Structures
1.
Amino acid sequence: MSTMDDELNEIRKRRLAEIQKQHVQQQPSDMQAVYQQEQARADIEAQKQMILRQILTPEARERLTTMKMSRPTLGEQLEMQLISLAQTGRLPSQIDDEQLKNLLIKMQPKKRKTSINRI
């Protein structure tokens, strides 16, 4: 019986070594894929920032950054809209702070005024 147990243990050890070897080989490729995805995101973000630097004045960029911290989804929408306008050539000049404020006002939904009347 001990030879059978020894053989079984040896088979288990070899199988465990194979599994570990496969895991080690797969891990670098997974890490590489994650790294490539992060690199692609960073490249896209760098391109967005370059375009925004060209189309916004420093004050408008500062307002956009502040707004993105407080309302990230609205900030992303505004960035995408500005980049779209720039790429289609519908921006005659740089957007200053006042123009950015006007765009923000247009993007936000109208607020309803609610009043309560007591009877």
2.
Amino acid sequence: MQARPEIADLRPYQPGKPASALRRELGLERIVKLGSNEGPRGPFPAAIEALAAATPGLNRYPEGGAELLERLAARHGLTPERVAPGNGADGVIANLALAYLRPGDEVLMGWPSFVSYRLSAVKMGATPIPVPLRDGSYDLEAMAAAVTSATRIAYVCSPNNPTGGIVSGDDLAAFLDAVPERVLVVIDSAYHEYVTDPAHVDAIAAHAGRSNVVVLRTFSKIYGLAGLRVGYGVAPAAVVAELGKVRGPFDVSEPAQVAAVASLDDEPELVRRRSENQGERRRLEGELGARAVKLYPAAANFVCAEVGDGAALAARLEREGVIVRPLAAFGAPSCVRVTVGLPDENDAFLTALDRSLQPA
């Protein structure tokens, strides 16, 4: 049976190396996993309680997510018709491609950036158009200049994964003013809750009223729910309706929904995690700078380092029991991305790095 030609040469998304696989390979008791930008803390305490209470009902299908949509809408001062849930922010990206892309369409994105933008476009026969970054951040002037009559979607990732840079609020507003309304602009704010830089803007508060803007958020990062896969997009009601047509039924599980709802009330825990991350990221930046490792400006829960051969360094670190992310698949083969872990995890990474950088 012949598959669609558009996917003939497509390489599936490769997640970070599982700690269990490295443990089996090397026989190490402790593996430090800093390769997937997960929050180092588990779910919020209230989410753990909610998950325990939801367990007896796992024989039932999810009830549709009305409470989650209502809570998210209220949080952003919107109506539930403006919120599109998904199986992680990735799920919303996939649904945007299904709903809006056809063969011959173009999808703009900065590069290196999140691989799913490219993969979702290629799956639909659309053409990814990569635009080089500027010092690790999206170059929105170059992005605006790259818009053509075939451009259908333009992604803006801020903070950008994998480099960590942000775009300023002024630059984002100017870009949105310059892009034709027929182009759907998707602002990926998966790491929004980590950012403390005043130049960063809450894209939902600032731009959700525009007719061609979708803003993505997720519970996979600071909320510690990566394993449950729950994200969402805020968009015009008409866009949300189109996404609903292509969504899989029950694509956000009941445990994911109840954990997400329970996580929304604990603002002190959110602030604590943001502060802890900022302190540890700055410490990592200082330690890596002292080792003459070139870093891109970072605003989220990871740093991106120029190391010459990312795959080679990642392999050496794995032998030390530390997992980081080589970035060839993201378009940056000379780099690795290192998630900000807990203090002892970051110490283990630095120790392993020192051994890995020594001449063989």
3.
Amino acid sequence: MIYKFKSKVTGDLIMLEENGRAILTIIGKTDPQTFKKGIVLPADMPAAMAALQQAVAEEEGRAQEKVDAARESGRRLASGGQGVSLRQRSLPFIRMLERCHAENKEIVWGV
């Protein structure tokens, strides 16, 4: 499954299922029906942006703890295979939320 997030003020944002579900879960859209289709209203966008930014900060904090622990024990972490961070995956959605909130337009998916 692919998520296509749509709004009237931005281009469509397409995400693979795993990434789309992760974003939806972070912003509190956890009802199984909202995984299929749903809406983010402008009034809910500030909380959604804050939740995503908090999740990014937590992920980056955990990553830094691993680096610090490795450094303290004299180990080096492998630099490869880090994958795409939540910051990178969520930034397009955060930008979409910002623009839609500024224009007072909703974001929908699955419709």
4.
Amino acid sequence: MHELSLIASVFDILEEKTREHGASRVTAVVLRVGRMSGVVPDLLESAFETYKNGTLAEGARLTIEVVPVKLRCPDCGGTSVREDTDFSCTACGSRRIEIVEGREIVVEKIELETDGA
């Protein structure tokens, strides 16, 4: 399950940002996960729930935003969002497309709390 190793990397980021901002804990995390990233959102959420126990994010809530596949066509310059596996341009039909979104895994937002705040 590579979702657990991804969450371990997310927690490295959380610890770094918590130190950087002088915070005492993490209250919320938003991850953007591309539909083609190879990550299963439910498994990622389960890994987060397991991993957070006993950490600075113990009470944190996780929100996962699934990013659809966005294509750009170098032939006509058109862009489209695809939910299916037909990776052709919706404007001109070209199969020469570039994937511009949908493969990423990004820590989009972290909410931190300091003692007394």
